[in-house]
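How a chain folds remains the central question behind the approach discussed here. No coordinates are needed to read the tokens, only the vocabulary itself. For completeness, the protein is quoted in full, as a sequence line and a line of structure tokens:
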Amino acid sequence: MRLHVGCAMWTHRSWQGRFTPHPLPPRDRLRAYAAHCNAVEGNTTFYATPTPATTHAWAAQTAADFRLVPKVPQLVTHERRLTDVAAPMRAFLDAVAPLGPRAHALWVQLPASFGPGDLAALARFLRRLPAAHRRAVEVRHPGFFADPRAARLLEQVLADADAEWVPFDTTTFFRTPPATAAERETWTRKPRLPRRTRALTAHPIVRYLGRDDPAATVEGWQPWLEVVAGWLAEGRSPTVFVHTPDNVDAPALARRFHEEVRARVPSLAPLPEPPPAAPSTLF
């Protein structure tokens, strides 16, 4: 039984000297992050497909059971809307191949304009993905949340492909007006959608957005503790990503989420203790 937790990235300026050593060359940053969390979102692949040499280096910095969820490139999902994408998908799949089992699932994040009328394109795309890869789909069109029939149709498409529906829970973030510069900037970019807690596969993935105030973030994730504990009791293997607008405390928050689930599921093994960010001194 394992719960994987992580953040939206594996490096952040504010983490240096606090969670990770400083200075730290780029080639070692994922390794340092992996001492704190056992999963990370692969957002970088959305903007540019990395070389196999780059992903080989990522694999070398992490254990085989580390989970990286690479996002399908925006060329495929947003620009071409899953149509006529054989060449970019071939390049993407070649790029993630060196990750081996660390590539936990291929994350298909769809634009808010991709609605119920586009499900045929999604079904065709998922059918063509190699069976060796898990599939995880994030939708943002309000129709999938407001119309029960549209939700059922999407679930059927996902079930046919053994794909997971990835919820992005922003309900805590939008509960009260923004209070920091990072929250104000995030306010205009993130989707406002209902919380969804239904898992379709044995490997559910959750994205949770809290606030820059850690106490508000912890208060907001309380409903997820029972959900995730329930999934573990059912034999599922969930992954939970904790975001905040500034992400300053994200690694500590992800670890705290794991601890709070473990308080409900004592058989869940604790995360290993990370090494100190900097060597101790006498002064």
About this structure: The CA atoms of residues 116 and 150 lie 6 Å apart. Residues 1-35+167-271 form one domain. The chain has two domains: 1-35+167-271, 38-166. The two ends are 42 Å apart (CA to CA).
